[in-house]
Amino acid sequence: MNRWIAMLTGAGFGAGAMYILDPDLGARRRALVQDQFERLPHTCQHAASVTARDLKNRTIGFVSEARARLFEDHVDNEVLVDRVRSKLGFLVRHPSAIEVQAEQGRIILSGAGPGG
User: What is the pTM of this model?
Assistant: First the structure.
């Protein structure tokens, strides 16, 4: 088994050397590899920045949700209507065709049916 691994590894290195050291296109390929290595720190820095921003936003959201669940008992009817409208905007094509009302924390949806 070790012979096969050694043989495949050698073949891979040989193919890579042929690809990079090719007299016709080798210089272009080496320049592309060099450009990729020079760009690597910027790419890593950008990925770290995006990840840190995402983690920060998720943490803020988690804390806000936890605070809301722990300390807020009553939600105003207007806030409840706005929350439902926000969710409907992602679920239906014409959210404005649905009338949303809230009474004592209960939601009432009404509107015309599919036929108009």
Answer: 0.45
